[in-house]
Amino acid sequence: MDAMTPTAERSRPTVAPRRRLSHRTVMTVWTTLLVVVVGLAFFLPLWWTFVNSLRPGAETFRYLAPLSWETFFTLTPTAGNYLTLLDSDLGRAIGNSLLVSLITVVAGLVVCSTAAFGLSAFRFRGQSALFAVVILSFLIPFDAIAIPLASMFRDWNLQNTFLGLILPGIGNGMAIFLLRTFFLAIPEELVEAGRLDGLGWWGIFTRLYLPLSRPALIGAGLMLFLFQWQAYVWPLLMGTDREHILGPVALSNLQGQFQVDYGVLFAASMVLVVIPLAIILGFQRYFIQSVTTTGLK
């Protein structure tokens, strides 16, 4: 029996040990699932809006209860709602919004970058207090001061003018804060080398600070664009005629007093969403870099 024991033991089938998932793998799986769920929560309402913009307004809520595959898909898409927009004021309003937003970005970057340069490159009495005012400016909601500010603009005859629509968006405290943070990370050795080469402060600003801060400038420009593009209260107060109406106000005007064509309304919403979405996706890499980076690589 003792001689047969090793043979018997060798003849037993070997059972592979169970492989246990590591804690890191489990966390990765759950994080991925969470990201997918959150992504779907944001994507499905946008997709539902897009699908209903391709349907007649009378069929908007036809497949909403109970939910089915036809809720999020349509076999008979139509571009009639988008063609209807061409006969409305929305086309002019979108053009006005693009004009106002682009001018705001260009002028705002000039103002905000020079202000950030002054707050980072120079040392003067009251600098901390001035920067605290800048911080406070973007902590206060703009809608809280829109009505008294609109009264001042009316006294200056700036109502129903593009200048009146653009001016409040030029000085953005958040953009100044972002640019100043980036400027502070630029080594002082570069500034001293530029001064030794004969550059004045304007040359240092345009030849050193601005080229090195391209991601921060793009991030600040996106902030200025989105602030102006999605603004509603200020354009509602200052752009009351057809020549100066902006996109969000024109979108709200599509709702009739007794009847609402939801197909046209959703089509207009998609147009107003696609433009900033395309810009954000195009500059996403620079925007993330501007937020996550605080110095030179």
Architecture overview:
It is built from 16 helices and no strands. It is an all-alpha fold and 297 residues long. It has two domains: 24-78, no CATH class; 88-292, MetI-like fold. α6 (127-139) crosses α9 (173-184). The chain starts with a helix and ends in a 5-residue tail after the last helix.
Please outline the helices and strands.
Blueprint: H1 5-11, H2 23-53, H3 69-72, H4 80-86, H5 90-121, H6 127-139, H7 143-155, H8 162-170, H9 173-184, H10 188-196, H11 201-212, H12 214-229, H13 233-238, H14 247-253, H15 262-282, H16 284-292
Task: Summarize the model shown.
By secondary structure, this protein is an all-alpha fold. It has helices at residues 5-11, 23-53, 69-72, 80-86, 90-121, 127-139, 143-155, 162-170, 173-184, 188-196, 201-212, 214-229, 233-238, 247-253, 262-282, 284-292.
